[in-house]
Each structure stands twice: as structure tokens, then as C-alpha cells.
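Hi Y.,

Following your request, here is the sequence exactly as I used it, all 315 residues.
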Amino acid sequence: MAEMIPVYLFTGFLESGKTTFIQESMEDKKFNTGEKTLILVCEEGEVEYAIERFWAKNVYFATISSEAELTKEKLTRLSQEHILDRVIIEYNGMWSMNTLYAAMPDDWGIFQQMMFADCNTFLSYNSNMRQLMYDKMVNAELVVLNRVPSVVDREEIHKVVRGASRRAQIIYDFPDKHVEYDDIEDPLPFDLEAPVIRVADDDFAVWYRDMSEDMRKYDGKTISFKGMVSVNPSFKPGQFIIGRHVMTCCEADIQYHGLLVESKMPVTCKTKDWVVIEAKIKIEYSKIYRRKGPVLNLISLKAAEEPENRVCTFY
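Below is the corresponding structure, written out as C-alpha cells. Let me know if you'd prefer a different format.
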């Protein structure tokens, strides 16, 4: 198997600080020790690279002018033109991340992904271009807020980032060059150690994601929440699905996220019924999931009113 070429991926919108960060990284002798580096530039901003300020003997630049030009054939050809130790990509914030992921050669692997944003426009961009913002944050390991003003709503910024990713570190980079790290804690809005974990109506999305990311910690736990039923005639007696509609970033991506319920007693609920369920979670293989997943062994079921917010969100 060919050795993977590490990709350092820098995303964000125009004038967000990507070029400056890459420039400073290349000037850092700890980062740039002569590695054969392809710098792939996917947008042209006001800041240009000052190549004379770093060791550029083994640095190769390539420009991708349009999203349609970003293809596997194009990137493979660029990769074959040089013997590369690594790739640095300055990605256009208006382009879909899926376009890049699909175009990456098989021997390229993302080593680090960072998103940059102007702190002064971050929240307005999120309000007006939520899908594009989410697209850049969801897989980022680091979100860097540049040009931080003296007064900034860190709670709101934290909430927006956490709506896309619970693992991304958040850094505030001030004009005087000092940086501060986001230290807001993210406690789960329910008690994992309670005899019955009670998930509030507005917390279903957070619980579902947390459970999906680490199912084992819920194995054997008893859970209670309100959900909408889905009954499939092909299921065995006593089996049904319960879940909620979840909006990840915008209305276009609203999806029903459901969990398999199994009951030893006949169940009379119908599709689209709202119920409050109490069940014990068992992580096991199911033909319905076609893999291991959370199976809810029913303890009790009660009819319920539709929640105030029919669609769940993360923020």
C-alpha cells in the first residue's frame, strides 16, 4: 500500500486569515524544514504569498479557479508532477467540502483541518449562510476567530460551533497577536448517572448525537424521552421505530432520526403517534440496522402531545 500524503486543509471565507496563517506556518522553521510541499490555492484574496520570506526550493504552487475544475484527475495529475511530502490546501469557503473530498487522490489523507473566520462577521455569516458555515465547521479540529473585537459574544459563537461539532477547539486571535482559548464547558443537558436518563424535548438532537458517537456508554442505561413513532409492516410483532426530526444546519437537511424499539407485549401505537417512552438500551446487532446499534427494550409507553418544537436542533 502506498504511503499516504498528509493534507493540511484550511477552510473559511474570503479575508478570513487563511493565507496569513499558511504564510506564517511556512516561515516557521519548525514547520518548514524543506519538505516537498504542494500549496493548492482555491481562491485569491488581498493577501499574497511572500515566497521570498520562506524556504521555497521544494514548494510548488497550483491554483484551482473554479469548483468545477476541482476533480480527482486534476489533483492526481498535480500530485504526479512532483514527489510530495505533503499538501496544503487553501480552500474556497463558497465551495462544498464534498467536492474536495470526492476529488482527493486515493493516497491523500487529511492530517489536519482548520476553519478560519473573521470574528466580526462570524454570526451574521452563520445566520445568512448557515449551510456553508456548517459545512466548514463539522469536520474542523480547530476554529480560529480572527480580528476579535473588545466586545464579543463568546457564548453565542460557542453555541454555533458546538451545533456543528463537539470536538472542534475554538481560538480567539486578537489584533495585538495574543490568543485566547474557548474554555466554556459543554456539560450534557441530562444526567448520565441517573437511574433513568430523562431527555427533555429540546435536547433530543444533543442526546442522539452523543449516543451515536459513543454508544457503549449507554449500554445497559435506562432512557426516557418523547418521540414520534414509525411502524413498518415488515417488522416483527412488538418492533417499531421511535425518533425525532432533526435539523443539522438548515431546513434542507431535516431528517428523521429513529431508534429500534422491541417489546415483549403487543404495541398498538401507529405511525406519527407521539409517545413518551421509557426503555433499557442494549447495544447489539440488529438486522434492521444491519450492524450493531442501540436497541430500546420497552419498559413503558404513554401517549403524549406533540412537542412545541417539532424539529430538534443543536443550537
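The first strand starts at residue 5 and ends at 12.

Thanks again,
Q.
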